[in-house]
Design a protein that fits this description.
- The chain contains eleven helices and 14 strands.
- With 400 residues, the protein is α/β, with parallel strands linked by helices.
- It folds into two domains: 121 residues, no CATH class; 264 residues, 4-Layer Sandwich (Purple Acid Phosphatase, chain A, domain 2).
Length: 400
Amino acid sequence: MTAFSIACIAATLLFATVVGARNGARFVAPVLVGLSIQALLAIGAYRLAGAYTPAFWYLQATTYAMMVGLARAKPMPIGWRLFVSWPASWFVVSTFLVLPWSVTGVTLGAWVPFAVAAAGVLWSLNARRETVTIDLSVPTPDELGRLPTMIRRRRGLSKPGHAGLRVVQISDPHLGAFMSEARLVRICQRAVAAQPDLILLTGDYLTRDTHADGAMLGRALAPLRAHPHVYACRGNHDLECPDAVAEGLAAAGVRLLVDESTTVNTRIGKVQIVGMDFHWRDRARTMRGVLIDLVRPEEGLRIILLHDPGAFKLLPDDAADLVLAGHTHGGHVGLVSLGLDWTAVRALAGLPDHGAWGQRHNRLYVHRANGHYGFPLRIGVPAEESVLELVRGGTRRAHA
């Protein structure tokens, strides 16, 4: 067994012992599993390193350092992100992608996975700015399915002037290593500058290293104070730090809707906004309970904010004109950048992970997210920064 292998095994056990004693099994157990798998992948890739073995030592060390940083649950400075978080994220993904070469021992083309992971850093730090026209008259199927004809994308953020409702959705910013406070400020500034009728946030605002910092979230979202109609729901990660999320949203003038609704007067009429909270259990019953006594605005729209698109299929028939979701980060790994719909999330889990979907008179738009979390990088799935233009091109509730 090489020294690199011994060092990886020892560092993984040390992480489990020291960090586990401080943070408990609830945090360490899933991280330890992932870290053990990554260590095995790194050991397998090490024999391909050749002259780059010193770099392998450094990069594997940054992987453990990044995890220790997460365990501290405190924002890290830019130097840490430049020399630890970003290199570690690149290396983790690279060791995963290079697995076929590691198993076979073939060195030809072994640089390709590392180049793809490097492109992933760029995908993770930049967003595609788009205008998305959503046609609320497109017929919906009885069973959950994609509705590619419901949306039309074009590059760039359009200027006000169309007849429909204009919405900016912000989803899954995950303030942390890849989403700095300054970057989120700029996203919010552009959201306000686009002059939408509504700005709607669909959850997961923080990461573990920013959990305790509601003030940081408030500063990052501060430009939203300039807009009169900003509403939000919570995502799964927001339940880990509900007080910090509530503090940050309130500081930015964002109204948080927790299984409740509000009705807004807009230039096209009344719009009812329903914020569904994230629930691990009894989601269908809970959502029915939220909707049962609500009266839909006459000649108006109802928009539901639902962080997890997996819960969309549980909504009652004709629950809303449009459901806005996030959570899946657009599938995270896929071929979206090449103009194809394939993603790993959809292939493995069958979830609605990006774009337009429909079922039983309900329509869903899944945002690809402004940020990301969990899997270290985006690969072939750019982040989204878009203006949504909601229109009705025909009969409101035609049914396929």
